[in-house]
Amino acid sequence: MAAVCLLGLLAAAPRPAAGQTRPARTRPASRPVSTRPTTRRTSWPTTWPETWPATGPSTRPSTRPSTRPDEPDPDEQTLRELGVEPTADAIFKYLREMHPTEKQTRRAAELIADFSSPQWRVREDATAELIKMPCLPTELLHKAAESEDLEVRARAEEVLSRREADQVRLLMSAFRLIEKRRFPGSAKVVLETIPLCRGAYLLRAAENALRAAAGADDLPRLRKAMKSEDVRVRAAGMMALAAVLGGKAAGELRPMLQDEEHSVRLAAAVALAELEDRQSLAALVKLLNSEQIAVRSRAATVLRALTGRSFRYTAYGDEKDRQKAVAAWSDWLKAEGGTAELKLPLNLGASGRGDLAGGMLIATGYRNQIIELDASGKQVWSHQVRGVWTAEKLPDGSILAAGYSENKLLVIDRAGKRTWEYGCNAISAQPLANGNFLVADYNGRRAFEITRNKQIVWSHQTNANCIHVQRLDNGNTVLSAGNDVVEVTPKGKTVWKHAAQTMVYGFHRLDNGNTLMALLGTNQVVEVTPRGKSVWQYGINNPADVHRLPNGNTLITGNVEMVEVTPAGKVVWKRGGNNYGSVRK
């Protein structure tokens, strides 16, 4: 049963604001002002939306960028802030104590039952005790949060909100530190913790830690994990085995291609693909017909990353089109599957961004210019685009630009030639791993995905001007429109929604499930949990775009300046010369 533990820290306060006194509000040029109600609310699904199995973004331990020499590790800072020393002993102790005892579980159930007591004091005392419990069985609370009794539901949500935000931050930092430090003995503790991880982002962090830290001494434990009844443990053990043994693991991985769980088959196929085992190709093609949309979407992404081909397969397209693409894949497999060059290591993820090689790509908004800087800060490329709010580098070095004032989405090559364009009121766009583009069509009030052949394969209408979009690894899309940030499934079902007190322009959904938002009207950037709790904020005049970097710093674009700030709010880079826009690094 999932649990939340405090280790003596009963309630950590949110991070303080990092900005100074905010300048007076100014409105962006040619931008309508929202008249939507300013009531703040966050709606959260009673069950987790379909998520991409975390086993598969990579089978190799990632190398995380180090922090600046003069700054402490942000994960160490987070752990200390939440009451856990960044040492192996302290982290292991915390993870072990996440498992609630039978006594704790019984007591939690009794307290939750008190939520429906006719006496207010009993309800209050029960809530307070649950908040302070050293180890909290959260599954019981999630069930209570679905109650038809409004009092029970509200109190369960309050306890979860108070406890889970810090819990997720702590776990993410603990797993990342294990990944970086590779503490001896980590594998056992991480494997025991995986069943308690709620959400794909936590599972991915746990798997990265396990793959990095596992060694030859852990092989018996990993093989046992591969036989676990828990699908997540089974897949994680297999991925770690591949990391430890390399090509010698292939014989043990191939039987996993027949696992009853498609997510485990997928993880096995990805691991084998990284080992250049061509049996992975047939397994991946077969998974294109999986009933689980997240599985077939990821299988398609892996195939494209491996081969550079797509055959216009869209995981959420209609059955007829999908089968046509699967048939093309099958034909390719017979003709070229045994000899085709495989592109390794795999570059996976929902994003299809190219490598900036330590440099920066700057869209200057109404200054009408895109500028690329190399790692030394030298300008190496530029191009004029009117009202360019976002620019993204593509894998071939070209630039995808959202020319808001030109009413065009553009692809521009290194010579400055516009090699592709599509007419729409694009204000932001994201290149996808399948080669398509995800677009926010501002005045069209829609988000849509378009192929290089200019075929729209997915779209979603919004109730206000659509400003920003992001495709998640699970196939869902997050978009901002007016005051709302919404996550929708490929079929358009809303599974998460947050309404701010002002218009939300740029945002960035983070690996920990939180969402960074640029609140234009209140001159703030905020990071909110899935339940709407603010855990970080920074003040800047008219923020239009935000992007969290792997080292924990945040890139923020305001109406007249761009900054990079640390989690503590220290400015480490600053540049002017823009009028809205965005920056990528």
Concise account of the structure shown:
With 585 residues, this protein is α+β, with helices and mostly antiparallel strands. Helices cover 31% and strands 23% of the residues.
Question: What features would you highlight for this structure?
Answer:
4-stranded antiparallel sheet; 15 helices; 23% strand; 585 residues; alpha+beta; 31% helix
Overall pLDDT score: 84
CATH architecture of the largest domain: 6 Propeller
CATH C-level class of the largest domain is: Mainly Beta
Which stretches of 5+ consecutive residues score pLDDT under 50?
Answer: 4-69
- Determine the number of helices (DSSP H or I, runs of at least 4 residues): 15
Number of strand segments? 27
Query: Could you say which overall geometry the principal axes of the C-alpha atoms support?
Result: globular
Instruction: Please give the order of strands in the largest beta sheet.
Output: 2-18-17-16-15
CATH homology superfamily name of the largest domain: TolB, C-terminal domain
Q: What is the distance, rounded to the nearest whole angstrom, between the alpha carbons of the first and last residues?
A: 40 Å
Tell me the major beta sheet. 5 strands, antiparallel
Oligomeric state of the chains present here:
single chain
Q: Strand pairing plus helix content: what structural class?
A: alpha+beta
CATH topology of the largest domain: Neuraminidase
The total tally of domains equals 4
| Cα-based radius of gyration, to the nearest Å | 24 Å
Helicity, in percent?
Answer: 25-40%
Strand content: 15-25%
